[in-house]
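[worker-b] picked up task from shared queue
[worker-b] task type: protein-ligand structure
[worker-b] ligand name resolved to flavin-adenine dinucleotide; SMILES cross-checked against name lookup, match
[worker-b] sequence length check passed
[worker-b] input payload:
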Amino acid sequence: MESHVLFIGDAAGMITPLCGNGMSIALHGSKIAFECIVPYLKGKIDRHEMEQYYADRWHQQFSKRIRTGRFIQRFFGDKFLANFLIRSLKPFPKLIDWLIRQTHGQPF
Ligand SMILES: Cc1cc2nc3c(=O)[nH]c(=O)nc-3n(C[C@H](O)[C@H](O)[C@H](O)COP(=O)(O)OP(=O)(O)OC[C@H]3O[C@@H](n4cnc5c(N)ncnc54)[C@H](O)[C@@H]3O)c2cc1C
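[worker-b] inference finished, payload out:
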């Protein structure tokens, strides 16, 4: 949120390419924005509440995923770290699934 503008998709925050979920985040963000804007346009909430509601929901939905993506991506800027991570995780497929889940949201 900047100058009272609701940012959606990449403009609000980009997930790292490795996580490959940017289109879904853009669509999900649009849905959240819609759900915040409609009550404002119907006069049920004021502008400040609408902005706060959107910011809260955006952070709740995407902040952790984007942060986790950035953390994982850091390993892939270095050949040694990338190989170390892949070799360490390979024997633990459930841990890999868990890691992927940290960057992917639920169907919406
Ligand atoms: C090479 C590449 C591969 C990717 N692969 C995947 C993938 O496999 N899966 C996935 O989920 N995501 C992928 N992504 C990410 C995904 O494309 C983005 O996260 C997603 O498109 C974000 O949607 P958006 O609506 O925020 O932005 P965009 O899709 O970029 O849409 C923004 C639009 O605004 C227009 N625009 C910009 N400035 C102005 C202006 N001043 N006035 C008017 N119009 C303007 C642009 O031309 C553009 O059409 C990839 C991205 C890249 C770059």
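[worker-b] attaching auto-annotations
[worker-b] The helical segments are 22-41, 47-75, 79-89, 93-103.
[worker-b] releasing lock
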